[in-house]
Specification:
4 copies of one chain form a homotetramer. The first copy, chain A, is of the alpha+beta class.
Chain lengths: 464, 464, 464, 464
């Protein structure tokens, strides 16, 4: 597979508004609440009187779009996107929303997730005479739509049937807004009511941010159409399942979001409690601390169930600029030093239970344990609020297909030694299911049970 | 007082390194840990072989200084500054460090604090034929030094004797580094050991960030000189007192900093405990939450002493860009909406104890209470981990000399109603002293007992 | 015709290098010599080991491409483009070269000219399922190539047969360089020898700039292919003619360029002589001046033939920044004031023959005449070194299709009065042909005899 | 002399407006006409109701000041500056106008020229307790004014008496405008009438640009004051002379400017005629060409007197961006290649007389001769419209104090060989005086007769 073909693994955020004044400004607010899902780029497309206009740029929302941009984007419907990418792909042509003129008029699309048969679809489109400029999945969707027959809704439904993988698309046409979620519901997508209008978002926290009322999650395989006739629901397939990505709860989503009926903070707190129950009577310690920010909920849960006091032993520097975060390993190492510091007065001479959300490469954990010891911690017991990650993700979470997943190479004891902790314990997949009270989730990165065929990605699996 | 004369109230951060390789890069790291003290501008001056070079810019450290800047700043000694300013004063000539050529050679200076007799000193210097370009206190110090007699140390000591107010200066000459703290110790300044060299910083967290060992706080009225002969201590006056600004503990400093012997996080946790003891047997509630980030320690303390569970009811958006923060009241209001959101699943139907660090204008508290109610909180009991702020600060903390301090106009009951809480309670000054176990602090903003004469600022007091 | 469909009239410059070290740096130099052909944007694509890389940006070459960009563009073949556009179209997707991945590998294309059936081709491509993002003619060519059969040379030849209008394309593939000129030769394109390699350019002055030896003009309808087998010539059609745009000589090209065998400066000088011969014995004057820069050659020719002294009565400000040049009429007016000033010492009290290259709207001439009178000129006799422009151009020269061509509305006498000159005389088309010693030119803007069918553009003609 | 002390040699342009609507916009226009005098930086200070505001920036006028800047600068009086500097000194503190608050109120100053006793004055001011931040002569003037007694006019007159060297200052106070020219009139300064108000400028072309009527040159040693009482003239000394810099006519000023009664273009044309007379009967040639732009007038003069046809053999690229002009010798060499090209059709097979204005280092001439030969010129006879430059300038023209003046090392014959011309001839100083019909000029760079004492600069002279 040539270099230019490297699919981008993108965990992103999408947002859409239909029939509300200042739709672009609302979308800006909504994206702001989704900024944690992507800081590499942002864009908004808005529609007024059948005229679509799009503005996008690199970096954080505040860098990517100016006040003037927002002011230009007039109209009562809009979609937006914040983008995270693990690879070079910061070419402007990969920024979203992507706009194009189809036979049916102007259209804009933005997506979150990863199409696993993107390479195969792209090949086929090119053989048929099309030229694709970028490498984004949205461009593939636009070409598929262009080549289908019928009115726009029919074309979108037909186009979706070609797609395998994880996706949540928002699509803006000259007079409608569409939102579609893949048939396994791998990526989250929620819909809310906003006055007479509607909005859709990757997470419920973005609905709150614009003052919308949460209506429901978009269902797996469902296409919602918002138009002058109101909200209509379609399904592009009957063959659906509930397989929301567990990493959304573990690491990715904001604690105040509620996805497929479960509040992220509360799920995390329960995982902390289960970790504490496993340690019951087996571990003596003085206090519990969490790695900010995503592990604080689990640390509180551990404190609840263990009775050990919760304290703030690690402080995160809120001002780590983007210039500091760089993809090389060396720079990642530096990143940890800059981002976290220990409060010596809290941990000195103490036996510390350290709760973290997950371990990918192990280097971050290693550094945090070292940091705590340098600040005088007597013992550091690391507890991970998820199972060992042993399989790569092809659905949009950047869990390291290329670099090694350390849990694929080391068992718990070896890993504990590598990290330098006094003890290490993970959640098991069964405990995870218990915490989530159900099996309707994708645990592929823990157990290798993928929700879809993997196409050419299979090779990556074999290598792992 | 004409407009151009408006002194800038600046709570800033300073850092200095003497005799360590890559002094400018270390200063950059140190300033990074002090970034919370100022995000309006940053600068570093470094010295190699008697050659002083300075680079500075607006905005966050990562915007103000490039990698190239740091690479240019060679040598084993350096000073740096991060700047916060409440007024227009973002002219480049107010960025620090400030450099000048004195009779004794090149010199650079940066400071934190506020000189209360700046206007009087400036007038006198101009009458003597000097021209001052900017409005920073550092410029005044440089002119005073230029006009004194003797070698550089003598000139600095003599110059300090003219200054009244709060200050912590770091001064870099062609072969030495100086650090001086005002005679009341109003602003913090600590010194650490770094290999064969030294570093000084506004807060101890910056020493940790560069891997230095905390040595001690600089004493009130003390001038430290770092030179090829090592560290020498001078006192510019015998008439000293310990009056460290209480707001450093309450709001400004980082929780992992230890100032004048007390850890910020732990002092805050104690204030939370005292608040809980006051409520003992008088208040029924379901949970305690804190306003992130500065009030979380006090909220944990309240939970400790009350037995009420601590939870994460408010989530802070970490990506609020600088474009959103603007000094107008209207924009401040908008700021709260963007910065904080409530976790409905946590607070819905609950009686919430909400802990905050302080109340200045009251509008922020009002909005947070409203936010919690909109998210379903049944009751909101606001507890403030400091006394009512009734007096303006002239020592560098921007506690609103111009706009009204709401506690100067309303008593606790009126304020509770204004804010819309079910109950409101402050810490008393006596409880504050108990929490701090001592009286060696400046509580002027609570009790009007100022540590120094106020000169022409008195008028501001009369108006308040 | 909807707004998004507005074809861009672009008189641009193209350059290409094959088999020469530092091909991108040479292309940069070559484009620099063509900068007068377009200042709105620039780009270069280079190829090394089958890897195509492209960099482009807005504005002058020095703004659009950095030293780093040039350094990145390694390899021995490259193409480049400087762009002029009359309409809004400064979207990044219209910058050239345009790159795409075709079935046959990566390709980059840049062009000068205007395809008159672009709208029709675009419609057809979309009906066949393609999506076109920009509005450039290069994108149409790429899509046509993608849809043709055979190897790349065959595909390009077949694609060209669909195109009607004026064009000079340079195309870079993974192992070859192509250059093609439309079958009427409406736009210039020359080829030179550079060591073991070759280069192609819109004007011969760019060959000189890189030290290449002029070889010959590309022939109408000819496709040149540069590859490891050397230079091969193809013709996409036998139905060719010589119709090089007369405006290239009159106004557009650089005086030191030689196009289709004629030196621009010398052709201009001859037109000046013919103007003088017409005035022989009929006009008394003191001196001849030209409007800098394009009319100086004709003014010298007038001086030659008339015996009147040539002087520098108008001075051009070389530093008119791009911020001053704006497309509104009001700003165009301001532009003249800023760009030109009269030398009072030269023109005061004098009867001046003022030579200009052409009149489009008449406002510029009006202002220059007024300027000379204000500076004391006693009489101003305007002589135009080309015939009246009465028809719009559809071949890439922005001669005002929308705004009125003043010579289409006024005869010479009316126009003289409008401009405020003491007398006004144009060249006739016959004299023009005499000056050019031949009829192998496009004089459509003077006589309405267009070289190609005009498709939907016909309507513009009717309106005019 | 330490590095930081390196005085900046600055040939700049100044402009001022008093009592005219939109004074800053007029100043912008005026500076635009003076842009050839400096492209490194620009600034404007304007005054409304006693409030002075200043905006400045680096680069060309269009880069340095935005439309918003100009709109902000309200009021009926303004001064402006365009800056050229030969050394590093592009620090923002060296941009002009410089503003300061003196005892008498706010003041702004800008200057053209060079104070030769700047170092001595600076030393003395520092000994008296002042701090000077930048290295510009304007800052010295402001400090001198601040230290003098009396009202502002008295202070300025007294301050000027301390200054030795070449200067033309414009000074804006809260209610007046001042313009002063050094007692030898080394730098030009003219005054014009603009409606009810006035303007001053370095060259008369800037008066034309704003529509002002030329009034007269400011006299050597004269201080003009524009105030509500009209225009008043003072002289800071009686000891005056007329010694306007000859390089202004030769190279620096615009051809349409008239300085101290002589039109620049016409003086240049006369020098060309004298060169031709010297060749009379001694040189056979086919045509005359000039090096654009500054030598075209002299080339025309040569053609007048010799009867040889004038032609355009060299074409200047108008788009040489600032990124190409760099101070290193290597880059200077590259600069010539990019800036000039020969028109082969004009010079091929011809005996060319090439007229240039002056020779400093000789490398430019060398390259132009080589360029002409490469383009087929049979013979190249170089004629220089000024005498050999053998002495450095300390009055603001950057004629190479450091790098060698080639005419100080080689006689005419050696130089001819070095340059590669077939013959070379200069103007003699006597012919120069004849062309200028007088001796009231500074010819120091030709004959070493300096108009003022040189202070520490003498050393530079000895070295040369």
């Amino acid at each position: 597979m040539e270099n230019w073909m490297e699919e981008l693994h993108e965990e992103c955020g999408v947002f859409g508004v239909y029939h509300a004044a200042k739709a672009a400004a609302l979308t800006h607010l909504g994206l702001h609440a989704l900024q944690h899902r992507g800081q590499e780029g942002a864009g908004i497309a808005a529609c007024e009187n059948g005229q679509l206009l799009c503005r996008k740029g690199r970096g954080l929302l505040s860098d990517a779009l100016s006040r003037e941009d927002i002011a230009l984007l007039t109209g009562e419907s809009a979609i937006g996107h914040v983008r995270y990418s693990t690879q070079g792909g910061d070419e402007p042509e990969n920024l979203q929303p992507l706009t194009a003129r189809l036979g049916t008029g102007m259209i804009a699309a933005a997506h979150n997730g990863q199409i696993v048969n993107a390479w195969e679809l792209r090949q086929k489109l090119e053989e048929q005479g099309s030229i694709l400029y970028g490498t984004s999945d949205s461009e593939i969707l636009l070409h598929l739509i262009q080549r289908e027959k019928g009115h726009l809704t029919q074309k979108i439904l037909a186009a979706c049937r070609h797609l395998e993988g994880a996706f949540a698309f928002v699509i803006l046409s000259e007079n409608s807004l569409f939102a579609v979620r893949d048939k396994n519901g791998l990526r989250p997508l929620v819909v809310g009511k906003l006055g007479d209008g509607w909005c859709v978002a990757s997470e419920s926290c973005a609905l709150e941010a614009v003052g919308a009322d949460f209506l429901r999650d978009v269902q797996p395989g469902e296409l919602l159409k918002f138009s002058s006739e109101g909200l209509t629901s379609f399904h592009y397939t009957e063959d659906t399942a509930c397989r929301l990505c567990a990493m959304e709860y573990i690491y990715f989503a904001r604690p105040d979001s509620t996805l497929d009926g479960k509040n992220v903070h509360q799920v995390r707190r329960i995982t902390g409690r289960i970790l504490a129950e496993k340690d019951q009577g087996k571990l003596e310690a003085d206090l519990v601390i969490g790695v900010p920010d995503s592990s604080l909920s689990a640390a509180l849960g551990y404190s609840d169930a263990s009775g050990l006091p919760y304290d703030v032993g690690l402080v995160k520097n809120r001002y780590v600029g983007r210039t500091f975060i760089q993809p090389t390993q060396e720079q990642r190492d530096l990143g940890v030093q800059l981002k976290l510091s220990a409060n010596r007065q809290v941990v000195e001479g103490k036996r510390v239970v350290l709760v973290d959300d997950s371990i990918v490469r192990g280097t971050t954990s290693q550094r945090i344990v070292r940091l705590l010891r340098q600040s005088g911690a007597k013992e550091v017991h690391l507890r991970i609020a998820s199972p060992p990650i042993q399989y790569p993700c092809f659905y949009g979470v950047d869990t390291s297909t290329r670099e090694e997943l350390i849990s694929a190479r080391m068992d718990c004891q070896e890993l504990c030694q590598y990290i330098g902790a006094d003890s290490l314990r993970f959640l098991s997949v069964e405990e995870m299911e218990r915490a989530y009270s159900g099996t309707g989730y994708c645990f592929a990165c823990f157990n290798g049970k993928y929700a879809t065929p993997l196409f050419h990605h299979k090779r990556a699996l074999e290598l792992a």
